[in-house]
Amino acid sequence: MNPIQRRLARRTFLRRTGIGSVALASLLRSEATNAFAAPSAGVSAHQGLLESLHHRPRVKRVIHLCMAGGPSHLETFDYKPELARLDGQLMPPSITAGQPIAQLQGKELKVMGPQHSFQRRGESGLLISEVFPRIGQLADEMCVVKSMHTEQINHDPAHTFFNTGTAISGRPSMGSWVLYGLGSETEDLPGFIVLTSEGGGQSQPISSRQWHSGFLPSRYQGVQMHASGSPVHYVENPGGVTRGQQRDIVDTVSQINGNRNQELNDPEIATRLAGYEMAFRMQASVPELTDMSGETQKAIEMYGCTPGDGSFASNCLLARRLAERGVRFIQLYHRGWDHHGGVKNGVAKTAELVDQGTAALVKDLKQRGMLDETLIVWGGEFGRTPMAQGSGRDHHIKGYSLWMAGGGVRGGTSYGATDEFGYNAVEDKVHVRDFHATMLHMLGIDHNRLTFKFQGLDFRLTGVEPARVVKELLS
Amino acid sequence: MFRCLIAASACFVTAMMGQAAEQSIRFNRDIRAILSDKCFACHGPDAETVEGGLRLDLAEEATDPSLGAIVPGAPDESELVRRILSSDDDQMPPPDSHKSLTDQEQQLLVRWVAQGAVYEPHWAYTPMHAITGKRAGQNATRLIDGVISDRLDQEALAPAAAADPITLIRRLALDLTGIPPTPDQVEQFLADRSEDAYANLVDRLLNSPRYGERMATYWLDLVRYADTVGYHGDQNVSQSPYRDYVINAFNDNLPYDQFVREQLAGDLLPDATLQQRVASGYNRLNQTTEEGGSQAKEYLAIYFADRVRNVSQVFMGATVGCAQCHDHKYDPYTARDFYSLGAFFADLDERGVYSARSRPPMIRVPSNALQQELDQLDLQIQQTRSRIPGLTEKLIASQPAWENTAKSKLDDRREIETAWIDDQLRLDASPSGDLGFVSGDDVPVHRGKSARRQQSDGLVQHLFSDAKEPLVVGPDTRFYAWVHLNSNDPPAAIMLQFNDGNWSHRKVWGGDEISYGRKPKSDVAYQRAGELPEAGTWVRLEVDADEVGLAPGAKVNGMAFTQFGGLVHWDDAGVITVGQFPPPVVQALQVAADDRTTAQQDVLRSHYLAQAAEMIALENEIKALTDKREKRLETAPLTVVSESVSPRPIRILPRGNWMDDSGEIVQAAIPAFLGDLQVDGRATRLDLANWLCRDDNPLTARTMVNRVWSLLFGRGICTSVDDFGGQGTYPSYPDLLDALSIEFVESGWDIKQLIRTIVSSESYRRSSTPTAEMVQRDPYNDLFARQGRFGVDAEVVRDTALSVSGLLVEQIGGPSVHPYQPPGYYAQLNFPRREYAADEGKNQYRRGLYTHWQRTFLHPMLKAFDAPSREECTAMRARSNTPLQALVLLNDPSFVEAARVFAERIMREGGEATDQRVDWAYRCALSGKPDPAIGELLCQLYQRQLAAYQADADAATKLISQGASEVATDLNPAELAAWTNVARAILNLHETITRY
Known about the structure:
In chain A, 33% of the residues lie in helices and 17% in strands. By secondary structure, chain A is an alpha/beta fold. Chain B is an alpha+beta fold. In chain B, the strands form five sheets. In chain B, strands 2, 3, 4, 5, 7, 8, 9, 10, 11 and 13 form a ten-stranded mixed sheet that branches. Chain B starts with a helix and ends with a strand.
């Protein structure tokens, strides 16, 4: 650190502690209403909005394994023997009349029985489909929510709903909300990172809206990492520039900025300096992160992948490395669950692609003592119809499953239930916004109190309808 | 007790508001925001959830003696005061609301009640009023300075000094054109001692074509202009002609009221011009979908709500969108207002779910040069056509001779095959969407160069219909089509279908999967032909007109090709007729010439003329010209426009639920509390636009003036530039905002004049560096005692680097362009999958606003610098300062290339000595000379970098050959590489991307 940087760093520090004495409410207001011209708050990775958590947290990070396309709950976690009996018969119109429906609009609605068998797994005896031999080994860690329901029946809006709590574009994603509230624990990497993989079924598109910060400051947006090319955009020096030369340039820029600041007295300059420092560190930390040559053979075998091949399993391994480095919110999309046709083989195929990686990640975190501080969420944007669409199933939003594992999760249990058809969630229903409230709760945040003022309203992830923390899911 | 509270509060308020404490409390300034923020959620305009029957937004109810909530003048008798000061269970706001009043807010409320609890109507909904008192009648520029200076005097706050001229010209150039001034322009301005120097500079910048581009950048954020559809596959549907219309409108200084009218209702204006129709594309800038399984009704409701949100935000500064599900909680907009406002747009021709890349109605928009070419072709076509009557005259003379020959051929029963479709649609008919022509080595083709590929998991078809000259079916007419079923992925069934006014004429091969017209027993509407044809080879299918119920005389105008599942290639298809003449001609020929009816005479004459060699030659000549015209026109960009059709009924959707049809049908209307349009019949979009642009509309002018002000100060007079409602902020200078708004209307909605007025003020020309006192007393610059300072927009970051390097191509408009982008960035897109190809040549160096705007994956450079996705209205961009921005400026190839081309300029134009060159380079990017210490730092950087590249020639070559522009071969590579890194440092400076 040269003298200018030291001075600026100290100034930044002083300002930060100054902010510390202001009440949370007014901080919220000042950041919100004055975002346009006010100094942007420090770039420091550590800085979240919340002075202190609202209550004791169960976990400090989230890993969301987003099963994009809408996995069939009926072939994975919600066993419905009655469906097998009714296979081929018409669905009772009393259930389906007037309900939202996607590609089966105007078609004959016939029941299709479960296409895979289920087995009792673990000491808890949770019923888990045969397509997940390894995830089944996690049964005693898992809490399966069988009564999820959502409001959007097409992929794009349903993802948007699951990530932001509304189908209207331009709102912050849950990862951004969490980062905004808690900040990150790493100075070397972005606090919200997204990885993607595909395979096993039709690859529905995924918009970067799903990890956008919406109206929150853009430093809270998710950063997508890529399996090919630069892992993070522009993280590599231009050809012909060594790390030492790049350092030289960054130092010169910082010195000139510092010099000019004596005249300009602009707090944004200090933020800029910190930004360049973190950018420079990222140029080293990202390659270090994605260089998996240090992973043991045993670990690689557990995940069953070639590290860095862009597979879901490789992304799981990377997710563990991100968690180790203090990344707050990690999202892994696997695009491959949209089985309108051939649901039997399709689900088996996609399941095979995610089974080992998922199981390895949970076990790996446990072995390293990190599972207790991590919330794992596994699930898609919706489920699939009990009615056949040829040999497949259509989109379905009135009842579906997801599961959680990790710190504070009541393992070896299931919660809620759908009706005998697996159509409507009927018992202990969990709306997407209840899930959001619960997730924030586990992070130590009261969802009612994490707000941001935009267009005159105090926005929050859970929106304006009442949302419930599902305490029954917690240990 | 109250007395001491009030005394205490007075001190407090004095401390915080300067002398304001001696003034009386004003409801709009001091009280409304508190009530709105802390109380209205339960005691506000949303009628369904009023707690305890008490509404604090209505004076009569709040001060109703029977309720006793507020007793004007008597705080100690007012329940409101007791409850807000209470610490018991009945405390307000209740703790579980997570809202609480600060001490200061409590005191303001108490004092307001003590002073009589006087309510004022919300400022934004009251008429704009002219300024009174000593400043009445002053010109607007003097007024700005006068009003601000009065307030600063009152607050005893000294304004900042005038900005130095270099800062000023740089600020003005960035504000008005989005491009920093060149060193020459700076020199010229510094040297110009004339009184008009500044005014001339302002005029020069306002007249620069770059001005329109800069203003458009902001407008396009508001109206959410993009090049893709936004939802699901986010396919490309560009409306670049609309973008160019906006640029030109600002450059031509189109009056704002006309600008508003043309966008909302350009298509409804009398004798609408092409540009006015292009402008009407505004109404269709909303996101749309082509996702399979989407319900049209749901998406129509989504588009409807999107439009109401945008129209109200852009033109009214209002958040009417909140009233989609319930009456607005904070403003007087009701759910009925929401649906009534949307009902103005019920006449738009639109669909809920679109098919591939098509957003009808769309029109082609030729450039001026192309239009001239088209006009020329039209003239030629017209001239050629004019030869038809003469030729007809000449040919008629020989008709009897032809008839004789024709009669002798009546017995000829040869079959004639006419292709309706083969490589292209040959019949003059309308295709439905994309016909799917494909060609290439791995594509099976039966005849010509292409076939029509169709693949699906379910039902899929393509078709054409509405033939201008339908085929008249004869006794032996048959139809044919060539198909090729993929052996690995065969369909379950295929079907040919014909239209003679309806489509109930089908023949099906394979299974029963195709549900269209399916019946238990075969009949003409669903004729089962048995097994699928053999896969892996070309097979000719035939259909007798008779077997699908097409009797002689039936007029067939279209044909459809349907399959269920699988991959099928379709090739030529058409009709087989028997004999040389169609049945009506045969009939006419069989009648003696004198006995023919007029109709028969016409049939014969038309047929004769149409087959005459000379006429065919002439028709071919015309067709060649019209084809050429068509081809030329197709090079012009398409744009989506508004077209008016019979309006669909609009219902209030209870809680916004599109499936609920129980709501009342509403008519187009402006929000009820703002009045009533009083038009005869259905109010149109044009009526809405005319209402917005009335002289006395309280919203339109204030909204626009405030936004223009915010562009020029980084902050509005009302800081919530997106919300003038009760939850917005109170303007720091309401009287000034009104005066400028009135002036704006009276000037004829002259935007350039408004800008000139503001930038000519002393207030605009002040330094942006706050004094210590300002930082303490007015940290956010509400009082405008100084200028604002802020990071420039993402586009300007790019434009600055390009312009400093000399790479910038200054050219207005045209299709959107593709700067370098990291490979694989669109990997998450599908339907179709996309590969991004960076533009070559000059389109690589266009301004940022022309960048292809992919809503779901905005260019990473633009995104890093806070450009919005344009899914929704953005009236105020976020301004962040992040490590990702540093990575872009350091490593994005666009910036590396700009640096190395800038380096060439430094070596060629910057003089000889290193320090000279450093000075020159610094001035290019930052307008002023560097401090000696800074110059020294850059010189040292150069020396160190030079040493490194002298030791590693390969590295130098690598660095200086990045980007597509030509590499200088006459310059020393090590020096050029070293200067490139100096240039990179300069382009990375905070000041380079900041407007002070």
